[in-house]
Structure formats: structure tokens, C-alpha cells
From TrEMBL:
SUPFAM superfamilies: Cystatin/monellin
Keywords of the record: Protease inhibitor, Repeat
MF GO annotations: metalloendopeptidase inhibitor activity
Signal peptide bounds: none
Domain Cystatin LXN-type span(s) in chain numbering: 1-57, 74-175
Pfam families in the cross-refs: LXN
Cellular component terms per the entry's GO annotation: extracellular space
Family of the protein in this entry: Belongs to the protease inhibitor I47 (latexin) family.
Record-linked PANTHER family: LATEXIN
Protein's name according to its UniProt entry: LXN protein
């Protein structure tokens, strides 16, 4: 407890490489939830000790494949009702994880626990610049209340700039 400021947590965690399940890195984090401020995201300071596998080659391959599509990519229900993600949609699912992480960070409190349940819908939007744009409807399971909440999230992605959430709209709020 920090008087008149908030609650600070010190965490030690191990991150698993989603592309190489045998590779992990240790990290530490400090998370500060401000008192009485539900409108602001917690402050997070993160230190990663080590490196995860480079995705540069896979990123370029995915980028070129999506840029070469004649029609915009559209998909629903990732994973399906059996938990399966088609290999061609795995990068779309990974981008959804990034987007859900952003939503979680921006909208969490000390009393929430979000988990990406499913990509309900995703649609690629053609752009005049070099970014790829995906408009998602993500279903986030709020583990404390047991609600499954839809979030509309727009993700811009480029292999050299990474993922950026440009728009985020949650249930019943102007987020």
C-alpha cells in the first residue's frame, strides 16, 4: 500500500514462447493500481531476462500472404467449439491475444481477471498504407464475474512496427 497513491504489486513470472513451448524467459514486473481511478490503466514496469525466438521470418511470410490476398480475410469462431485453430489462422489468433492483452491492461482493476475466450469475428480492412488492419470482435471471459464480454478492437500490424491497437470499444462503455 502506498498512502494516497494506490496498491503496488511486485511479480516474478516465467513467460512461455508461444512458438517454442520449451523456451521460457524469466521476467519481473511492478504493477501500480491507482486509488479511486477506474478510468486509468495501471502503471506497469516490466523487465525481461532473456530473449524469445525471433519471429521475423514467420512475420514476413504472414505479411506477404495477407497482402497478396485478392479478397480481404474474414473469419469467425477462432478457436472453434472443439478448441481448434486452423494453422493458416494462427497468426490472426496470436494478434487477437496481443489485442486482448491491451484491452486487459487498459480496463483491468485489482478485482478483474480477463481471458481471451474466442475471436468471434475478424475482418481485414484494406488500407492505402503498408499496415495490415484487422477489425476484431473478441469475446473476453471475465473470470471473477463469469461474464463473457464482447470487445470491438481494431489492430494495425506491420512486421517492422509490431501490433498497435488503434480502436477499442467495450460493452456498454465508450472505451
Amino acid at each position: 500500500d502506498i498512502d494516497d497513491v494506490g496498491h503496488k504489486y511486485y511479480l516474478e513470472l516465467e513467460l512461455e514462447d508461444v512458438l517454442d513451448k520449451d523456451r521460457t524467459v524469466k521476467c519481473t514486473a511492478e504493477v501500480l493500481y491507482h486509488l479511486g481511478s477506474k478510468a486509468s490503466a495501471p502503471d506497469v514496469q516490466l523487465t525481461v531476462q532473456g530473449e524469445l525466438r525471433s519471429t521475423e521470418e514467420a512475420d514476413k511470410e504472414f505479411y506477404n500472404r495477407i497482402r497478396s490476398l485478392e479478397k480481404e480475410l474474414v473469419a469467425e469462431n477462432i478457436p472453434d467449439s472443439h478448441g481448434n485453430v486452423p494453422p493458416a489462422l494462427e497468426p490472426i489468433h496470436l494478434l487477437a491475444w496481443v489485442a486482448s492483452g491491451y484491452v486487459t491492461w487498459q480496463n483491468s482493476t485489482e478485482n478483474t481477471k480477463f481471458h481471451l475466450a474466442q475471436v468471434k469475428h475478424v475482418k481485414q480492412v484494406k488500407r492505402s498504407d503498408e499496415d495490415l488492419q484487422f477489425d476484431y470482435v473478441l469475446l473476453l471471459h471475465e473470470m471473477v464475474s463469469q461474464e463473457v464480454l464482447p470487445w470491438e478492437v481494431t489492430v494495425l500490424w506491420h512486421p517492422q512496427r509490431g501490433a498497435r491497437v488503434s480502436q477499442c470499444q467495450g460493452p456498454g462503455a465508450g472505451n
